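User: Okay, second chain of the day. Same drill as before: sequence in, structure tokens out.
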Amino acid sequence: MRSMNLKSIIRRKTKGCTIVRENEFEENILNRDFKADNINEKWVIDITYLKYGENDEHKTYLSAVKDLYTREIISWV
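Assistant: Same drill. Structure tokens below.
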């Protein structure tokens, strides 16, 4: 690499998630009990982002709501 005057690019680590204060969340009602006995009894939500385009310069968000009884996606945006 020296003879060809090449340098490697080292990317810095990025933080994985945003720090949120404990009082900004609602009470943890499920308490990791993800088994539902009836339809529409328990719903969960997940929000993530997807990178796209050349060099991943664009970002879009995906939010999904899932029923834990049927395991179906109820809604997504």
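DSSP finds no helices and three strands in the chain.

User: Thanks, on to the next one.
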